[in-house]
Structures are given as structure tokens and as C-alpha cells.
Structure prediction request, 543 residues.
Amino acid sequence: MSDNERLELAELLFPNIKQTREELEERYPERELSEGAKVTRFAPSPTGFMHIGGLESAFLDYIYAEQSNGVFYLRIEDTDRERYVEEATDLIKSSLQTFDIMPSEGALNGGNYGPYVQSERKEIYQTYIKDLIIKGLAYPCFMSKEELEEIREGQELRKEPLGVYGVYAVDRDLSLDEIKEHLSNNDSYVIRIKSPGSLENTVILHDLIKGDITLPENVIDEVIMKKDGLPTYHFAHVIDDHLMHTTVVIRGDEWVPSFPKHLQLFSMLGFKTPKYAHYAPLTKKENGNVRKLSKRKDPEFSVEFYEKEGIPSMGVKLFLSTIINTNFEEWYLQNSDKSFMDFNFSFKKMPTGGTLFDMEKLNNICRTYFSRLSAEDLYKEALPYYEKYDKDFYKLMTDNKDLLISFLNIERDGKRPRKDIATYKDIKNESIYMFNDLFYNLENNEIKCNHKDILLKYAECYNENDTQDEWYERIKDLAINNNYAASVKEFKAEPDKYNGHIGDICEEVRHAVTLKTQSPNLYDILKILGKEEIAKRINNFIK
Ligand code: GLU
Prediction:
């Protein structure tokens, strides 16, 4: 085709595109950022499901942009209209809000590089496609589904690489007249690039996480515009990351095999290639095997799971931090006064293979996180959860604020603060006996009353004004006066001599007032309950 014919073809295919790519380049100039500032983007497809891998991706984008004084923006990649779900963008928004991973620019809050929704950028993509047609680097392809299928079957049989390339790219050299005929017949078509690649060549992906990866060069005449006039992911992200001036594309490593296509597109369009960081998928151990987290099998794959389970968003972020950088956890345990943003995240410390998503570890991180909050802050943080998911307890919490905070405050200071709370749900589970309304409905058939007489005596001699030491001395006196050993050691030496030991008394009191086998410091619990309530519970227990 001559230069003039290509111009004519471009006009025929894109009569409505009047702007030039030069005009677009001017409209979206280089960003004015300090040296080393990273521009990252979270680019989800609105399929109506937000998974934890997506959140990890957004978190990575957020961290690296924030820590470099760069920009983190949100782009909605909705060119696949078959998978499009109307409410999906709301879900993306609310998830980012819940976890406080908010982009500073993009589909939620606008900016100078929009529109940030791909379906609203059709003209932009078509401007570049028109330009590629004029340059002879792209062409309309009218091949039918059946023809493509036939080619594929032949290639499979001959064990050749699959796709439209070389001799299989039959529409590559259609004349202008042939194309006009197709168009006048209203034949549907896609636009493909004319790949300049060769099967003999390789390209190198300098991945920030995985290091250098050598891949075969792309030879396929990749589809860049679909029949509906919208671009494919491959083309759209290249245009967008160029015009929006992304400096690092952080995405899942399922995209590594497509990298040669993307590299080729950047080069054919004359764009500078951004840096790439491909992170490994989240995995899980099952029957000795390791597999990817799955939407169907794993509730924790969905981002909504965490909120419903009362898992704090900060706990999830801390956990993701341990996944993102292998040296984070140790740092976090040593730096109790710092925020995760004080940690120096680095692509070099990211795992290159699949990362185990260990719920137990998540729980432990949450325990540590909660143990570092003041009782007041823990209380405040938990309120919205109960307001949404357990209105009755929410009322108890607000009616008995001081009581609950006193309870949460037990064993909070000191070197080894208590770690019995991993989720907001645990606050109710652990404190349930502190609320008379709930306590008297509790049942625990495993706990029996074994030392009735001593319990009754204890109810009588308990003194609210005792210090912790005096309190213990009092129990000791009670033990000695009633033929209980004052220590376990004494008891073990002559078990037949005693009715039991001091530990039995404490256990029995704990059982009576909490109906649990474990609790935070008993002295503090008793003090909060008060003498009258203790006596009431002991009498109740004995019955
Ligand atoms: N829309 C793509 C996806 O959801 C994004 C990949 C990317 O970040 O470039 O998989």
C-alpha cells in the first residue's frame, strides 16, 4: 500500500478521529515530580469481585508511591465488556476506603491525566491506532472465528507456535480495494499490529522483583482493537501507562509471558518503557501441596471476608507487609512504636515465587497489633464493627464503656502485654463474662464446682481494697487455714495430706466468676466485678 492509500484507509476506518497523537502528547505532559518519585497505578478490571491479591497490588502501588513522594492513581480497566459488572467500581472504592489505601488521583478523585476509566478513552486509543495504520504498522483483519480455529488446529497438529503470524497473517497484505470491499459488505474486523518480531530472537525483561528474565520475542500480530472498537488490555495499558506517565507497572506475574508483546508495542509506538515489577501469587498449603488461593475454595480470597470476620484492616496491611518484604516481620516485632510506613520497603526483598497466605500468621500479627493499642483506642476501633454486625453488643459496649475499657486495660502495659484478641469478634468472646446480661446466660458444662466450701469462704473474705500482693496473701491464709497447700510444690510432696493447693482455689474462683478456664489477671477482673457481684456469682456457681 502506498503512503496515500494508507492515509485513505486510516480515514475510512476512523473518520471521527480528528485529533493527532502529538496533540495528545501535549495534553498529558511529563509530571513535575522530584527525582526518584514513583508513579504507580492500581488498574483493576471491574468484574464485581475484589480479591486479596488485588488489595496486595493496590497496597504495593500505594507504598512505593508514598515512600518516594510519587503518585498512586486508580485506573478502571473495563474494556472487556463481557466481564463488566456495574457495581464493581463501588466495591473497588469501598475496599480501598476500608483499608485506607487511597489513591491520590484517578477514577475516584480525578486528576490531570484522565479520564481514568478505559471505556471513556476510546478516542485516545483510536488516535494512536489510526496513526499506526498511517505508518503501516497495523491493519484491519477480517478473519472469521472459523478461519482462526482452523489455523489453530493446524498449528497444534504440527506443534507450531499458536497465533496469527507469518503465513497465517493472511490479511496483513490486503490491498486497499480488498479492504474496501470487506467494509462495503459490513464485514466485522479487528485491528492487528504488524509484528516485526522473529522467532529466533529473544528479549529481556528486567524485572524489579524477579531479576532478568529472557523471553522469546513476540511474533504474533496481536489484536490491539476488538470488533467493538475498544482496545485489548495489551494495547490499552501501553497507551495509558505512557500518557499517565507511570514509572513502575506493578502487576501479577501471570502477565510475564505477555511482556514481549507489551515491549514490542512500546517500541512500535515510540514510547519509553516503564519499569516492571511482577509479584508472585498468594498460595495456600492443602494436603501437602501448594496451590494458588482460589475464589471458589477460600473465603479469605475475598476482601469482604476480613471486614465480616472483624479482622482489623491495619492487621491485614501488616500481614501484607510481611508478604511483600520478607524482612518486615522481624522489624515490626522489634519496633513497637513505629508505623508500617516507617519501614523501608524494597522490591529486592519481595519473594520471587508463590507466597504462602498463612491465616495463623495473620492472626498473630493482629494479636500483636491489638496488644500495642491503648485500651481506649482498641475500644474505639472496635465500635464500628459492632455497630454494623452486632447491634446488641454495640449497645452493651456503649452503655458500659468504662467497664469494658477497664477490662481491656488488664495486662496491657508491661513487657509482655496480653495477646488474647486477634479480631474485633474476640473482644466480645473474651469479655463476655464482664457483662451481667450475658454472663448469666452462659453455659459451660465442662466446668464443675469441686471446692464448694472454700469458695464460700472466699466470697466472705474477699476485700476490694487489697493490693495485688495483699490479695494473694489473703488467699494464701485462706488456703493454710483450710488445709490447702500454700504452694504446688508442697502439695506434690504430700498430696494425701491436703484438700488441694492454692492454685486450686484460684482456679475455682476464676471458674465461678468467668465460667472460663482462662482469663486475664484474676485480681483485676475481681476488682472490676466488685465484692457483691463476686459473691453472687460464687453462689450461682455452687448451685
Ligand atoms: N486489568 C488488569 C487486571 O486486572 C491489570 C493488570 C495491570 O495491572 O496492568 O489483571
About this structure: The first strand starts at residue 39 and ends at 42.
